[in-house]
Design goal:
Elements lengths: L2 H22 L8 H9 L3 H4 L6 H16 L3 E2 L10 H7 L1 E2 L1 H14 L4 E7 L17 E9 L2 E5 L17 H5 L11 H4 L4 E4 L1 E3 L13 E2 L1 H4 L5
Parallel strand pairs: 1-2
Antiparallel strand pairs: 3-4, 3-6, 4-5, 7-8
């Protein structure tokens, strides 16, 4: 094969892969009309009005969001073919960390916060390169939300937020390196193992956010936090 033909083939493959990654696997983080209706059902207005008034008001709102979402239905994970948007979670009336993290993040953005999705995973055989692959590793989806004093870890399943002893917001990366300072973090067995913290990875199989193409789903702007 001529060099020019090889170049054309490589270029075509690169374009196809780039298109697939960009459009088939990227997650849309906009608040849809259905999202807004689902969030309104939580009746958070009293806790989240004037949220910019103070740091304490921010915490009040985020705790209310967390408690409301965690009170929904039974704890049971959606199957891989189910979508995990807020309205889907309400219709099913069951879900686990992926459903709850998605609902918490969209609710927080609805009330004016910036958010980033946190994927915690025990790497397969200790190799971080496996963390984007569905190899049966123990994992957890949760959230960090930007307050006026910094990024705050807000757990999806358990009723804890990551506040230091002096009440300052803490990230998951910082907390798992100082686990003794955060006794409310559950389950204990999970957080005492080696964990990779990956921002912006929403699923490893590609089905949770509506497009149903195989591959890891992501938000590119959040992936960039992995290098900060």
């Amino acid at each position: 094969m001529k060099k020019s033909s090889i170049f054309v083939v490589i270029f075509a493959i690169t374009v196809c892969v780039s298109f697939y990654v960009s459009f088939a696997l990227s997650v849309n983080n906009s608040i849809t009309h259905e999202d807004a209706q689902a969030i309104e059902i939580l009746e958070l207005s009293a806790s989240c009005e004037n949220v910019s008034a103070s740091y304490e008001k921010e915490l009040e709102c985020l705790l209310a969001i967390q408690a409301s979402v965690q009170s929904i239905g039974e704890f049971s994970c959606a199957v891989d073919s189910d979508t995990v948007e807020p309205s889907d979670f309400l219709r099913r009336n069951y879900g686990c960390c992926t459903d709850r993290a998605r609902f918490i993040e969209k609710s927080a953005r609805y009330y004016g916060f910036d958010t980033r999705h946190v994927f915690l995973i025990q790497p397969y055989e200790g190799l971080s390169v496996t963390s984007f692959l569905p190899l049966g590793q123990s994992s957890h989806a949760t959230s960090e939300i930007l307050t006026t004093k910094g990024w705050l870890g807000v757990d999806s399943n358990e009723p804890f937020i990551l506040l230091s002893e002096n009440g300052m917001p803490t990230t998951y990366r910082s907390a798992i390196n100082n686990i003794a300072a955060f006794p409310l973090m559950e389950p204990k067995g999970f957080y005492t193992k080696e964990l990779d913290v990956i921002y912006g990875l929403y699923s490893r199989h590609g089905n949770f956010h509506g497009k149903n193409f195989p591959g890891p789903e992501y938000v590119f702007s959040e992936l960039l936090w992995n290098w900060n």
